[in-house]
Amino acid sequence: MEYCIIGNSAAAIGAVEGIRGVDKKGTMTIISDEPYQAYSRPLISYYLAGKVAEDKMYYRPNEFYKNMGVELLCGSGAGKLAVREKTVILRDGTKKRYDRLLIATGGKPFVPPIKGLEKENVHTFHKWDDVKSLAEELSAGCKAVIIGAGLIGVKAAEALLCLGVEVSIIELADRVLSSVLDEQAAAIAQQVMEEHGVKFVFGDTVTEVLGEGRVEGVSLKSGNKMECDMLIVAIGVVPNTDIVKGTGINVNRGIVVNERMETSVDGIYAAGDVAEGKNLLWAEQRVIPILPNAYKQGETAGVNMAGGNNSFTKGFAMNSLGFFDFKMTSAGMQGGEGYEEIYTLKAEEKFYRKLVIKDNRLMGFIALKNIDRTGILTGLIKDQVEITKFKEALLKIEPGFAEWPKELRKERMLS
Amino acid sequence: MKRVYVREEYCAGCGLCQVHCITAHSEYKGDIIKAYKKSFPRPLARVIVEEKRPLSFSLQCRHCEEAECVKACITGAMQKDPATGIVINDTARCIGCWTCVLVCPYGAVRRDETLHKVAVKCDMCAEAGGVPLCVENCPNGALEYREER
After folding, report:
1. Which residues of A touch B98 (CB under 8 A)?
2. Average pLDDT for residues A154-181, to the nearest whole number?
3. By CA distance, what is B113's nearest residue in A?
4. How confident is the model at residue B129 (pLDDT cuts 50, 70, 90)?
5. Given 1.10.1740, 1.10.8, 3.30.70, 1.10.155, which CATH number is that of B1-60+127-149?
6. DSSP calls for A116-183
7. pLDDT class of B127 with cuts at 50, 70, 90
8. Is the pLDDT score of A166 beyond 90?
9. CB within 10 Å: which end of chain B, N or C, has fewer?
């Protein structure tokens, strides 16, 4: 059996480990367009800030590929997929035949057509090379504008602040981190970021990048102008589905996969930020672009590619996010109409804990400042446990099992 | 694999499991007084004790077959040893992002921010070998080290 994996991040590594759990012999090839062994994408902001050294960036040990019997083709990247011939054609012309293929090409930064965006000093914040090139242009005291106050924009801002850069964030929505925090939580998070020196402009966006060759400033939709030495586009990430264009593989927002991570074409699987799969909380299929989801989808795909039988349908959004020493965790849904919401808010202490409940089951939570043991909440979402008898206790600073009915406690605690 | 199981009916809430856990993870193994008086910073207990009198019990990492913390770890620091089944965090690679705290359904991963940020958790006293010290030192037999029944 010949396995081929396009992409070399969490989903790909999950697949390698999934395949090798079932098939010790088949040959495996990974095709990557980056010149590195698998590294941790979420660590790029830490690398930029100087908090993580080069040798600590790698997601698996040096000998991983050798031990797993994987040939890593890195640099050129996959250019074309010939489905009928079961062949991947690399950009350098090399052809790679496969019996089973996994597409784990991840996401790519969404960059809208903004006038003047082709200038030097415009960056995205997605890959290791993005922050390497950014690092070369930085100096303490220079001014950066970041478009987007989502997870990427916020982590980019933190790293730049560590380096003494003046940071302004322009966000079209009315709050920070709108995909993971509700309004009350976002207000606290914004305050924390402002205390660290971030300047915010909400409800506005960049319409033109100013400067001759290099970025010197931006014009906003409101008519305001801001000076800056560099611009970071952190609006969002979209599934990188380029490779499947014209192949007949079913694509909606991402590559559509079933619970086994199979695409619409026999023998071809997809996993990670490129895949749109079944999930726990939403009726419709979704792309859930977080690392734990990517690993699990990749692992599931790998097991199935090797002839095993595994399914993954329990994905949902979850994030642990730090801003300097301020801690935030959240998972699942944010609530709204049709949901029961119970919360504790102590704005002056920056403490917030919210539970989102539907049909006596936990559908989501947000925890600010104190995040210890919030994994218990994530577990309750995942397993859709009936929580009526102890839901108030879950608002405690540190949730635990003591308030649970004895039988449920023993069942869940000691498995 | 053998795991630690609590029998809450026998737990007196004395906290000796934590005392011995701290000692076992200090530089003064086997010497409680030195571990408490001389270890700076004093290690965190990897075992959690919950109390709601008269109920009390201790809880530590379950070393799950399908370990959420391992799959979710963004650095690759959290790994399950294929030979022993023990889930160990490589603190040299951990950066304290607390994704493991977010995903552990037992709430069994602790934050240690005393020196640099690292996640700490039960390692089954693997270095010392034998029965984990929380079990060995529980005065009331409330902790068992055994195969799943």
Report:
1. 320, 322, 327, 329, 371
2. 98
3. A325
4. confident
5. 3.30.70
6. TTTSBTEEE-SSHHHHHHHHHH--TT-EEEEE--SHHHHHHHHHHHHTT-EEEEEESSSSTTTTT--H
7. confident
8. yes
9. C
